[in-house]
């Protein structure tokens, strides 16, 4: 299988960036079939530095962020090159890469001027002995990490054909200072920040499809009302304040609608609403409690929880409310369904006595797989936008904290490792992984 590499046009984002191509540059075919049974051996050199202060080790920071992103992706294996200055040069001799066991090389240059950074990033392929891509970024220091994440995603795209997830974020509720509030963090555990200041009970934050806003339920006004706020905490407004429950908002993947649980007509039921807050239709209407909706990637179906059969179980309905069918037959308490962005699997939670664990099933309910076991309460699964990872909450080490695992349950690890572990001392609940920003 070969993937055609095409020139990417100039893009204007929060920062400015431009493609840099050497003289005589051409489209390159990367034969990615050679990596079907192994990881890509990549070397990331410390970037060359130009600027006033050397104490911050800017070139080393760029390399460290790139290495971490590529490791977290699961596609790459790092080749350590030590202080090999030849691989730092922007006119590197590509002939020797293969002899060093390197499939791909990343190097570049960073220039710091005041509160601005200019970063040149280059990716080379050893097999074709060609510079695959070069991008120059101009950014403020405060979005330095996001700038590097952007190039990480570009590397992953060049070798897989899929956009990476390094620029995505995870929001959640936490009781860091008593009251529950909404927080957000970059997918790698950095960039932790507070979103709301409700000084009240806040529940179930959910990203909009464009990852620019977050909907959540707050008891600040005495009723569980639904609000929406910009990712930086500004622009708070009410989405729904019907008497009773206004909660569990889930935006469709095209951003045109949201499914929300309201109890304004009696029992909690699922309704379809516009992003402006107008109710379009009632999706469920049984005497049971229907809750926790999650859209399919095509927006044609919704999986939800209902206790119409006795215990809460998984059901699926067309998005117009017809063709309701039970998905999994399980006599235990089932909760928190989340439809995979790739469409093939649905994650959910099963409670058996004092144990709570995460499972997945195919969309027909024929194949269930248990992902967690024997390690405390594991709940609130949320898929990464590429469907390769699941964020969840576990109290396996005492407090409820945020974890990440592969979609088959392997490689379970805390989101806040090492030096990041001290940034959040409270309990975390209901994470939601943002979709990719285009």
Summarize the entry for a quick read.
With 438 residues, the protein is mainly beta. Helix content is 8%, strand content 44%.
Walk me through this protein's architecture:
There is one protein chain. The chain is mostly beta strands and 438 residues long. It folds into two domains: 2-160, Rossmann fold, CATH 3.40.50.10070; 169-433, Neuraminidase (6 Propeller), CATH 2.120.10.30. The protein has two helices and 34 strands. It has helices at residues 58-73, 144-160; strands at 2-4, 11-12, 16-19, 29-31, 40-44, 48-50, 76-78, 104-113, 116-125, 130-140, 169-177, 179-186, 193-194, 202-207, 213-218, 225-230, 237-240, 246-251, 258-262, 269-273, 279-282, 290-295, 301-306, 313-318, 325-326, 333-339, 345-352, 355-362, 368-370, 378-383, 389-397, 399-406, 413-414, 428-433. The chain is globular, with a radius of gyration of 23 Å. Mean pLDDT is 88; it is low at 1-15 and 21-27.
Low-confidence stretches: 1-15, 21-27
CATH architecture annotation name of the largest domain: 6 Propeller
CATH class of the largest domain: Mainly Beta
Helix content estimate: under 10%
Total DSSP helices: 2
CATH topology of the largest domain: Neuraminidase
Quick one: how many beta strands? 34
Q: For the residues shown, what is the average pLDDT?
A: 88
Characterize the largest beta sheet: strand count, sense, and whether it forms a barrel.
8 strands, mixed
Compute the CA-based radius of gyration.
23 Å
Strand content: 35-45%
- The domain tally reads 2
- What structural class do you assign from the helix and strand content? mainly beta
Can you tell me the overall shape? globular
CATH superfamily of the largest domain: TolB, C-terminal domain
Distance between the termini: 26 Å
């Amino acid at each position: 299988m070969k993937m055609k590499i095409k020139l990417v046009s100039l893009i204007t984002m929060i920062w400015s960036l431009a493609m840099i191509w050497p003289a005589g540059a051409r489209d390159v075919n990367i034969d990615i079939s050679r990596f079907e049974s192994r990881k890509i051996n990549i070397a990331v050199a410390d970037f060359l530095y130009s600027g006033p202060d050397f104490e911050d080790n800017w070139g080393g920071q760029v390399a460290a962020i790139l290495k971490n992103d590529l490791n977290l992706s699961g596609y790459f294996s790092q080749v350590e090159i030590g202080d090999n200055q030849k691989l730092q040069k922007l006119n590197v001799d590509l002939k020797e890469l293969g002899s060093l066991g390197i499939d791909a090389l990343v190097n570049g240059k960073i220039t710091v001027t005041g509160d601005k950074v200019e970063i040149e990033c280059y990716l080379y392929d050893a097999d074709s002995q060609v510079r695959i891509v070069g991008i120059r970024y101009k950014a403020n220091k405060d979005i330095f990490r996001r700038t590097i994440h952007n190039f990480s995603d570009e590397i992953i795209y060049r070798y897989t054909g899929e956009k990476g997830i390094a620029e995505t974020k995870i929001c959640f509720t936490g009781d860091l200072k008593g009251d529950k509030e909404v927080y957000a963090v970059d997918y790698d555990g950095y960039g932790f920040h507070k979103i709301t200041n409700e000084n009240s009970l806040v529940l179930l934050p959910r990203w909009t499809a464009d990852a620019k806003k977050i909907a959540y339920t707050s008891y600040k006004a005495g009723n569980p009302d639904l609000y929406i706020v910009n990712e930086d905490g500004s622009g708070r407004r009410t989405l729904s304040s019907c008497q009773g429950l206004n909660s569990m908002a889930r935006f469709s993947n095209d951003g045109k609608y949201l499914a929300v649980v309201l109890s304004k007509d009696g029992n909690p039921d699922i309704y379809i609403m516009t992003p402006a807050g107008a109710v379009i239709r009632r999706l469920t209407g049984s005497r049971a409690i229907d809750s926790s909706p999650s859209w399919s990637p095509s927006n044609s179906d919704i999986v939800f929880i209902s206790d119409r059969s006795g215990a809460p179980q998984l059901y699926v309905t067309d998005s117009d409310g017809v063709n309701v069918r039970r998905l999994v037959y399980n006599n235990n308490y089932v909760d928190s369904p989340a439809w995979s962005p790739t469409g093939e699997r649905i994650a959910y939670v099963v409670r058996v006595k004092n144990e709570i664990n995460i499972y997945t099933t195919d969309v027909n309910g024929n194949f269930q797989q248990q992902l967690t076991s024997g390690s405390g309460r594991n709940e609130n699964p949320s898929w990464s936008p590429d469907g390769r990872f699941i964020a969840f909450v576990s109290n396996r080490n005492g407090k409820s904290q945020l974890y990440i695992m592969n979609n088959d349950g392997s490689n379970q690890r805390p989101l806040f490792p090492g030096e990041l572990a001290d940034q959040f001392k409270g309990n975390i609940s209901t994470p939601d992984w943002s979709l990719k920003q285009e």
